[in-house]
Design a protein that fits this description.
It contains 14 helices and seven strands. By secondary structure, the chain is an alpha/beta fold. It has a four-stranded mixed β-sheet with strand order 4-7-6-5, with helices on one face. The chain has a three-stranded mixed β-sheet with strand order 1-3-2. The radius of gyration is 23 Å and the shape is globular.
Length: 358
């Protein structure tokens, strides 16, 4: 078996072992295999070791949630897919940072950029473009420039010659340049990537953070715990749609309630999410950004209730989990044999959870 085949077939097999057998050690190995280049990407975009690890962990959470789909798709690699997910995880974190900075008055005055600053900004723009590429082209670039694979290794993985692999990478770079030209950026991707992609801005402690085995195990274990916690909050069949002022803020809020992101539409020209959905069990929440010019606006006063299994003990535990996330919860209300409590969304909607005593 060739080297390229070993790496990626092992990726898929490790994911299968985790999904099918609950083998957490297999998931730890998967994290170990990809964490170095993923951390470098996240660190460059977020400029903070700990926040970069959070974004990387968020990407691995999405991986566990999408494991069944990925295994059924018979894809040959996880690298390009992980880059795409990590890119959007970092984008969400950056938006949250900017919102907090605005609220706290911590936005720093604009500084004139030197050449190195401009290079870093251009690299970030390039990575935005890489995330837009089709899967096959994105895979070529991630393998060549992020995972440092040679053309021979890429050829082994694809079962083609080294020269054919070189041509595949060159075509991917041409597609990347086309995307960048469309956005008004005229650079030569290959020379730019060769010169900058291997330089990940980091603090003096970055190397220790990346290579320390305890951190690898912590990220893997934390991911599994987060996923298992989310699985424990499944609601019965119901679907509701809300018009909201800020889709991203509501996504974060419903995640605290135990919902998992299912679909997030690409951001618009203003950097805002127009539409998204979340799921928990058979429960569905649809979020749509309100457009008052079209007569749609948030309508507080609507109450949606979700059933919680396991009776009184289940709803007590669920209320505690939500409160521990920092969400304000109402006192319990008892109505004959039913017990319920409510929370209020950022736009004033009331969301309730109820169960029946056993």
């Amino acid at each position: 078996m060739q080297k390229g085949d070993v790496v990626e077939s092992d990726d898929i097999e490790l994911l299968r072992l985790y999904q099918r057998d609950g083998d957490n050690s297999a998931f730890t190995q998967l994290v170990d295999r990809h964490r170095a280049w993923m951390f470098a990407v996240a660190r460059r975009r977020l400029d903070d070791d700990h926040i970069a690890e959070d974004a990387m962990q968020a990407a691995f959470v999405v991986l566990t949630n999408k494991a069944v789909e990925l295994l059924e798709s018979n894809r040959g690699s996880l690298s390009g897919w992980l880059f795409h997910v990590l890119h959007f995880a970092c984008t969400r974190v950056r938006r949250s940072q900017m919102r907090r900075a605005g609220h706290e008055g911590a936005i720093h005055p604009h500084k004139d950029c030197d050449d190195s600053d401009q290079g870093g900004s251009l690299l970030l723009l390039m990575e935005d473009s890489i995330a837009e590429l089709p899967v096959a082209e994105r895979e070529m670039i991630v393998r060549r420039f992020y995972q440092r694979e040679s053309f021979a290794e890429i050829g082994d993985w694809l079962n083609i010659t080294t020269e054919a692999a070189r041509k595949r990478v060159s075509r991917a770079l041409l597609d990347l340049r086309s995307v960048m030209l469309r956005d008004g950026v005229d650079v030569i991707p290959e020379s730019f990537l060769e010169g900058l992609i291997q330089i990940a801005p980091a603090s003096h402690n970055t190397g220790k953070t990346v290579v320390r085995q305890t951190r690898i195990e912590s990220i893997a274990k934390g991911t599994v715990v987060m996923v298992e916690t989310a699985k424990s909050c499944d609601y019965s069949v119901i679907s509701a749609e809300f018009f909201v002022k800020n889709v991203e803020a509501n996504l974060e809020f419903f995640e605290k309630l135990g919902f998992r992101r299912r679909y997030v539409e690409a951001v618009d020209a203003m950097g805002r999410v127009p539409r998204a959905s979340l799921v928990s069990g058979a429960g569905r929440i649809w979020l749509r950004r309100a457009d008052e010019s079209e007569g749609t606006r948030p309508s507080p006063g609507v109450t949606v209730f979700f059933w919680v299994d396991e009776g009184a003990e289940g709803i007590i535990a669920h209320r505690k989990r939500i409160a521990d996330e920092g969400v304000i919860v109402s006192p319990f209300t008892d109505d004959i044999s039913l017990r319920n409590f409510t929370v209020t969304t950022p736009d004033g909607y009331t969301i309730g959870f109820f169960t029946q005593y056993r």
